[in-house]
Write a structure and sequence with these properties.
disordered N terminus, eight-stranded antiparallel β-barrel, alpha+beta, 26% helix, two-stranded antiparallel sheet, 12 strands, 7 helices, Cyclophilin
Amino acid sequence: MGRVIKKYRTHIMALAAVLFVLLPQALGQRNPQVLIETNLGNITVELYPDEAPVTVDNFLTYANGGFYDGLLFHRVIKDFMIQGGWLFYQDGQFKYYYTNPPIINESDNGLSNLKGTLAMARTAAPDSATAQFFINHADNLFLDRANAADGFGYCVFATVVSGMDVVDIIANVPVIPTGFSEAFPDAPKVEMEDVSVLPCDSVQCSDFNGDGTVNFADLALLSSYWLDDAGCGSANDFCSGTDLNYSGQLNAVDLNMFANNWLETVTAD
């Protein structure tokens, strides 16, 4: 039985590979979007995997793992930025989680620290960013690599697409100096209650080859990755758009979203 399954697996992969090279890749998929729900309102951000692939994959890993849920915006400086992704408050104490290893600094990607963009926070070491990020509350061009005093700057990897009014509200919360932040918002504390990656569940997202209909050609492309042990990320365009929930691998959630769009036709907005 095992040899039979292996035989058919080989045939399916060969067919999928032929169709794969004939199809444009990830035509229907948009850039990943992440919803940051705070106690003061919601912020939706769009990530830039083409410009900052390592940083985007890093951010998605933390978001998909629930790392940011319950963490605070612990450093808020109006007309500069709001920073979070480190501390949480529990049993009257501030605590923190251990992070994954630091990532490379992709600040040479051509994106600028304009108001509303997200960038990775770091120490004085250029390649030290882990989980902390900030949302620029002004055009902070001095943070760009081209203008940075240290010659490296801070990597922009996303921008706010909805909820900039919430960023403004957070930026105006009264702050106090503490041992871990010179500008900690304490009245109230600003919590990221839930940070979730938004699935790409529209008909257009499941139309991987862009022919206007979700059909067998799209299924073949999905199958080519379903049978592959490699993960999905920025490097392979999230498995050519088939990783519909940006989880890093094809799973039943992706298949269910695809099935819900089966034989549907893309309509103009």
